[in-house]
């Protein structure tokens, strides 16, 4: 599971840390949605029901935006489905801060958002997990391996971010509007999978990690990378770390669609999953997209 995260970069630093290359090879910084940069608050302890930064396709808000344009938004952690009828979202009687990948399409709260392509990437310095040790719990902080270039400094080289490498987690979001009218509330849930071998001694679950720009791009590309229920009975049995969404994502028609390996740190430090295992998380969710030119 994932019940606490940290995201300590300032709003403008977060833009730089989330920079990406567009299809022309140019490095871009995602903009914040109008007013969201002012609402964002860095924190070492973000919990469910708090607001946090997510990365998503600009096409969820502007159908004419380029297919590869991303935007940052400040959303509340804990998905409130669009169909929720109460006037107060706090009246939901169950937790939606995490959703298990293996039954996400069986849960009404997540199914509709996911099938509409409302996928997002939760960005954070890392997340906390607690290991039970007899009568006590030992906290660990899990994060991406940091190179010498990004282990401590905050800066850029040739337009690329050289500060702390943010953890990128697969999520699903939805937009809820109060029945009587009012400002829409954007919320998200963190997708979880079976823990990788290097983390299972801490907890049996972990967030679904997207390792690298290509995995992030495919997850956000809801227009061309479609989510499907697995149907290939002859496919290779998924491993513990890749069980979550095998074959859920496949190429869809090129027409535009509307939107309706980390480390752990305890009181000391230890390591997360090796990269070979971690990239098995969401890599298998995505099948190779069509090689035909994409519409813009």
Automatic annotation (TrEMBL):
Residues 28-49, 236-296 are annotated as: Disordered. GO terms for biological process: protein-DNA covalent cross-linking repair; proteolysis. Transmembrane segments: none annotated. Gene3D superfamilies: SOS response associated peptidase-like. Residues 255-268 have a biased composition (Basic and acidic residues). This is Abasic site processing protein HMCES. Coiled coil: none annotated. Residues 238-253 have a biased composition (Polar residues). InterPro entries: SRAP (IPR003738), SRAP-like (IPR036590). Belongs to the SOS response-associated peptidase family. The gene is hmces.
